[in-house]
Design brief:
Blueprint (H helix, E strand, L loop, with lengths): L2 H6 L5 H5 L5 H36 L4 H59 L4 H26 L10 H21 L20 H12 L5 H15 L1
Helix pairs in contact: 3-4, 7-8
Family: Belongs to the SNF7 family.
Membrane topology: Peripheral membrane protein
Keywords: Coiled coil, Cytoplasm, Endosome, Membrane, Protein transport, Transport
Length: about 240
C-alpha cells in the first residue's frame, strides 16, 4: 500500500488512534512526507517525458508507429505531472492552514495560561487598599516636595537689624582701629645737636621739620616718608 493510501485511509500509530486522532505535529509530518514523495514522482515523470520525446524524435517518419506510441506515453506522463502539481498545491494549502491553526492554538493556550496567572496574582489584591496606598504615596511625595522647597529657600537671618545702626557701629570700630594705630606710632628720639638759638618760641611746624631732618640720617627712605606722614598728622 502506498503512503498516500495509508494517509487517506487513516493509517497511523496506535497511540494516535487511542487519542481520537493525530496531533498537529503528526499531521504536519505526514503532509511533509507526502510533499516529498510527490516531488520525487514529479522528477521521475519529467525524466520519462524527456525520454519518450527523444524516442519519438529518433523514430520519426522511419517508424511512425513507435514514434506515435512514444508520444502517447509522453502525454500520459504530462497528464500525471499536471495532476501531481494540483495535488501538491492542495497539500501545501492544507499544510499551511494546519500550521496556522496550530500556531493559533498555541497562542490561545499561552494566553489562557497568562490570564490564569494574572487572575491568581490579583486574587490577593484589594482595590481599596491599592487606592489607600496610592493616596499615601501621593501625600508623602507632597511632604518630600515641601521639605525640599524649605531646604532650598535662602535663609533670611538678620533682616530685623537696622542697617544704619550697623553702619554706625562699623564706623566706631574703624575709628578705634585708627586710634590704636596712632598709639603704636614710635616717635623719633630728640636730636642730640643743639637747636639754633632764635628769639621767641618756634612754631610747631618748624619743630616738626627739624625732627624729620634728624631722622633722615638713621632710617631708610621708605620708613622716613611713612613717619613724616604720621608726624604731619600728629602735628596738625
Amino acid at each position: 500500500m502506498s503512503k498516500i493510501s495509508r494517509f487517506f485511509k487513516g493509517g497511523g500509530s496506535a497511540a494516535s488512534k487511542g487519542r481520537g486522532g493525530p496531533s498537529p505535529q503528526e499531521a504536519l509530518a505526514r503532509l511533509r512526507e507526502t510533499e516529498e514523495m510527490l516531488s520525487k514522482k514529479q522528477e521521475y515523470l519529467e525524466t520519462r517525458i524527456e525520454r519518450e520525446l527523444a524516442v519519438a524524435r529518433q523514430h520519426g517518419t522511419k517508424n511512425r508507429r513507435a514514434a506515435l506510441q512514444a508520444l502517447k506515453r509522453k502525454k500520459r506522463y504530462e497528464k500525471q505531472l499536471s495532476q501531481i502539481d494540483g495535488t501538491l498545491s492542495t497539500i501545501e494549502f492544507q499544510r499551511e492552514a494546519l500550521e496556522n491553526s496550530h500556531t493559533n492554538t498555541e497562542v490561545l493556550k499561552n494566553m489562557g495560561f497568562a490570564a490564569q496567572a494574572m487572575k491568581k496574582v490579583h486574587e490577593n489584591m484589594d482595590l481599596n487598599k491599592i487606592d489607600d496606598l496610592m493616596q499615601d504615596i501621593t501625600e508623602q511625595q507632597d511632604v518630600a516636595q515641601e521639605i525640599s522647597d524649605a531646604i532650598s529657600n535662602r535663609a533670611t537671618f538678620g533682616d530685623e537689624f537696622d542697617e544704619d545702626e550697623l553702619m554706625a557701629e562699623l564706623e566706631e570700630l574703624e575709628q578705634e582701629e585708627l586710634n590704636k594705630g596712632m598709639r603704636d606710632v614710635r616717635l623719633p628720639s630728640v636730636p642730640s645737636t643743639s637747636l639754633p638759638s632764635r628769639p621767641g618760641k618756634l612754631p610747631a611746624c618748624h619743630f616738626t621739620l627739624l625732627i624729620i631732618k634728624s631722622c633722615s640720617s638713621t632710617r631708610r627712605r621708605a620708613e622716613d616718608e611713612d613717619e613724616m606722614k604720621k608726624l604731619a598728622a600728629w602735628a596738625s
